[in-house]
């Protein structure tokens, strides 16, 4: 239910960035990194983006969402890295278990709660084709 | 077509910073705060009132912030029970956030509370993404919601310090096994603490307070 407010926050950040660092050419796609712990519907985010960007410099751009896996740091054994997941039958989702996978200690989440725009796919400045094609995205 | 790196800021970072500010403000005043989450009708308000009774017996002063979409029903219950309280209507928003709570703390008589319960809007989805800056997070499930609630909303339970399975006196009437909820919670959250409660009779309230470190 907070997809619209977070889409607006993404758009505000991008608008500010583009004012300071303008790009030439039409923006076709927006590369977003989304932490897998966030309870956000990707469909709702995309729809919110479509509506909120109407009339802006990035109108018509497509949101490309990349899921960021959870990473933890364990203060007990020093482990830092990915976690284990509850994948057995009966769970409706693949759920990260927020404990240290090495010593089972209480671990601190260091990735997987973030939401940020990290890249754009932009037409060449003189691009005139009506076909947007399939924009490629920068590596994460 | 070409690709451009755009290092914009994490849009949730601001919320985390505000939560850290709330945490610091409460910590320096020695206030123990608990974010109380759970679905509508799970029994959050009554459980807070029961915990407040016990804490008062221990000589602690209890405050509460009543987060709701609209109205002041819970706020009035807190005031009637003699708690220091504030009402926090979100105006249709489905969760509290650190920004709203920060403003509520600006006017809350913090000098009059040792423990502060912040009752979130009834919702098992959105509050998971918005830490408030409390020392502990509690989620309340009523057995009447069904024994698959942890499986349906795993992300909030994976990140919560304490689970209260409430209305356990009704479990046999609705054919729900509270043990299933506890087992699912422990699978997801090996360090979480689960307590069976019946707020109406007061069963389990002392255990719940111990689990919250209060």
Shape of chain A: elongated
CA radius of gyration of chain A is: 18 Å
Largest sheet of chain B: 7 strands, parallel
Secondary structure tally: strands of chain A: 8
Determine the mean pLDDT of chain B: 94
Distance between the termini of chain A: 27 Å
Distance between the termini of chain B: 59 Å
**Cross-sheet strand order for the largest sheet of chain A:** 2-1-8
Please state the oligomeric state of the protein chains shown.
Answer: heterodimer
In words, what does this structure look like?
The complex is a heterodimer of chains A (140) and B (214). Chain A is an alpha+beta fold and 140 residues long. Helices cover 21% and strands 29% of the residues of chain A. A 3-stranded mixed beta sheet of chain A has the order 2-1-8, with helices on one face. A 3-stranded antiparallel beta sheet of chain A has the order 4-3-7, with no helix packed on it. In chain A, β1, α2 (42-52) and β2 (62-68) form a beta-alpha-beta unit. Chain A starts with a helix and ends in an 18-residue tail after the last strand. Mean pLDDT of chain A is 88; it is low at 131-135. Chain B is an alpha/beta fold. Chain B has 9 helices and 8 strands. Chain B has helices at residues 13-28, 44-57, 73-80, 98-107, 149-152, 154-158, 171-174, 178-188, 205-211, and strands spanning 2-5, 32-38, 62-68, 84-89, 115-119, 136-142, 162-166, 193-196. A 7-stranded parallel beta sheet of chain B has the order 4-3-5-2-6-7-8, sandwiched between helices. In chain B, α3 (73-80) links the parallel β3 and β4 (84-89). In chain B, α1 packs parallel to α4 and α2 (44-57) packs across α9 (205-211). The longest helix of chain B is centred in the first third of the chain and has 16 residues, at 13-28. The radius of gyration of chain B is 18 Å and the shape is globular. The model of chain B has no long low-confidence stretch (mean pLDDT 94).
């Amino acid at each position: 239910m907070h997809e619209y407010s977070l889409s607006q926050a993404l758009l505000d950040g991008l608008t500010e960035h583009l004012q300071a660092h303008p790009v030439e050419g039409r923006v076709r796609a927006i590369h977003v990194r989304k932490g897998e712990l966030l309870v956000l519907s990707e469909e709702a985010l995309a729809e919110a983006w479509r509506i909120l960007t109407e009339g802006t410099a990035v109108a018509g751009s497509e949101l490309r969402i990349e899921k960021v896996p959870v990473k933890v740091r364990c203060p007990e054994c020093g482990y830092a890295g990915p976690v284990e997941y509850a994948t057995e039958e009966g769970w409706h989702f693949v759920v990260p278990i927020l404990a240290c996978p090495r010593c089972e200690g209480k671990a601190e989440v260091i990735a997987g709660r973030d939401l940020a725009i990290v890249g754009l796919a932009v037409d060449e400045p003189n691009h005139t084709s009506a076909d947007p094609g399939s924009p490629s995205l920068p590596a994460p | 077509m070409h690709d451009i790196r755009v290092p914009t800021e994490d849009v949730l970072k601001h919320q985390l910073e505000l939560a850290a500010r709330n945490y610091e403000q409460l910590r320096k005043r020695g206030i123990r705060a608990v974010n109380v989450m759970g679905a509508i009708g799970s029994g959050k308000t009554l459980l807070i009132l029961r915990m407040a009774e016990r804490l008062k017996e221990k000589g602690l002063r209890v405050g509460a912030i009543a987060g709701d979409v609209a109205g002041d029903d819970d706020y009035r219950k807190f005031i009637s029970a003699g708690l220091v309280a504030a009402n926090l209507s979100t105006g249709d928003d489905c969760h509290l956030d650190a920004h709203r709570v920060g403003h509520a703390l600006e006017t809350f008589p913090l000098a009059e509370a040792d423990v502060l319960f912040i009752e979130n809007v009834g919702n098992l989805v959105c509050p998971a993404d918005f830490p408030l800056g409390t020392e502990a997070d509690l989620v309340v499930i009523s057995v009447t919601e069904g024994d698959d609630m942890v499986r349906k909303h795993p992300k909030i339970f994976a990140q919560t310090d304490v689970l209260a399975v409430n209305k356990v006196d009704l479990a046999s009437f609705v054919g729900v096994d509270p043990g299933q909820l506890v087992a699912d919670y422990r699978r997801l959250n090996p360090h979480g603490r689960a307590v069976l409660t019946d707020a109406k009779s007061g069963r389990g309230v002392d255990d719940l307070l111990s689990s919250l470190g209060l």
